Amino acid sequence: MRYTVSAPGTPIHAAIQLPASKSISNRALILHALAHGKQTPCNLSDCDDTRVMVRALQGNPEHIDIMAAGTAMRFLTAYLSVTPGSRIITGTQRMQQRPIRILVDSLRLLGAKIDYAGQEGFPPLRITGTELQGDEISLAGNVSSQYISALLMMGAVLPNGLRLHLTGSIISRPYINLTLQLIHDFGGRAEWSSENSITVYPGGYRDVPFTVESDWSAASYWYQILALRGNEERRMKDEESPKGDEHETVELLGLFPRSYQGDSRGAEIFSRLGVHTEYTDRGVRLTLAGTPVSRLEEDMVDIPDLAQTFVVTCCLMDIPFRFTGLQSLKIKETDRIAALITELRKLGYLVRSEQDSVLLWDGERCPAENTPIISTYEDHRMAMAFAPACIVLPQIVIDEPQVVSKSYLAYWEDLKKAGFTISNEQG
Ligand SMILES: O=C(O)C1=C[C@@H](OP(=O)(O)O)[C@@H](O)[C@H](O)C1
Ligand SMILES: C=C(OP(=O)(O)O)C(=O)O
């Protein structure tokens, strides 16, 4: 299937109920399960990654397929290691290429019974739950924070708690802090004991009411839409065919100022691209304000999921950039560094990478394809970050658009609500 997406012809005034955060939903579900809780967390995400988690935790299945959900794979691996029973956990072909050895080695050192059911170092895994005795381990902090979050959540149910020492530079640190925050909300105790060590105290969790907030990573595509609209308005004014000065607004419901989510930093970065954020009593209101910077340099080691949004936005706004800290992008839903370079080339932008951890663009262009079709590589964020390109181009064609359901089931419906036109072609 393919979608052809075209931008609204009239100013955008939309109020969008964003999906709930899958990162928070999946942590809340694990903590709720470890608490043997009765009060199901409220406002859980309806996305694929959370659905597979709900299914895995219900009815004690022996064969668990978490499809493409990295958090579910990693969090459940630790959870199942301390849960009675023997199970196989697997996922999509891509999931079977996403490394898990660091987590498995750590759990084995604590006494877990885990075997590789396919290739060493990768899912599928056979896990037999047992009582873990270890209480202290070192593991690399520079591959995926999800291994660390998985161990932390499990740590509070171990008889002596858990001390983690993280080696190497720590990536995605806000996601570790998100885990610590949720552990605390569920009545556990865990804290940084130094710059690179974390202590989880024993004592387990409590059955508490919990409500999941909206997803800041999903919000980024709406910021992108507004930034690109602002760009087009400025261009039209330069060409002296003003569209009128009716101000465009997007209101995103369910976001809060002091969010648990590291991706809320996107609001500040987008302020440098001409999007103003105002907090209301039900979310945030985005408007256009200010002149965008002429170049953007940012370390994205804390916000890897926003990389695609900013890379595509900057190219389309003609803003040269250098984004560092992208070393985890190669092992996500697809190799996002390669995917971005390939797809932006179709639109006429020559983006380069350095050492697999930097993406940069100095304004180099190449001829764009006449009718580019954006491949999505089973990666929801490729579809969501490229769809707004229709604001700058006459239209954009997105291949396999249904991939968005990994984190944002209603993405296309929400675009339609905001006035975008989407037509469906068989591809
Ligand atoms: O813990 C989490 O909820 C996540 C952590 C990040 O992964 P890495 O720690 O592998 O970078 C992020 O990319 C992912 O979408 C969600
Ligand atoms: C990387 C992501 O997810 P995960 O690693 O949980 O599959 C993502 O949602 O961008």
UniProtKB/TrEMBL annotation:
CDD domains: EPSP_synthase. Coiled coil: none annotated. It comes from the Bacteria. It catalyses: 3-phosphoshikimate + phosphoenolpyruvate = 5-O-(1-carboxyvinyl)-3-phosphoshikimate + phosphate. InterPro entries: Enolpyruvate_Tfrase_dom, Enolpyruvate_Tfrase_sf, EPSP_synthase, EPSP_synthase_CS, RNA3'P_cycl/enolpyr_Trfase_a/b. Its EC number is 2.5.1.19. Pfam families: EPSP_synthase. Residues 8-58, 63-225, 248-415 form the Enolpyruvate transferase domain. Keywords: Amino-acid biosynthesis, Aromatic amino acid biosynthesis, Transferase. Gene3D superfamilies: Enolpyruvate transferase domain. Pathway: Metabolic intermediate biosynthesis; chorismate biosynthesis; chorismate from D-erythrose 4-phosphate and phosphoenolpyruvate: step 6/7. PANTHER family: AROM/DEHYDROQUINATE SYNTHASE, PENTAFUNCTIONAL AROM POLYPEPTIDE. Belongs to the EPSP synthase family. This is 3-phosphoshikimate 1-carboxyvinyltransferase. It comes from Bacteroides clarus YIT 12056.
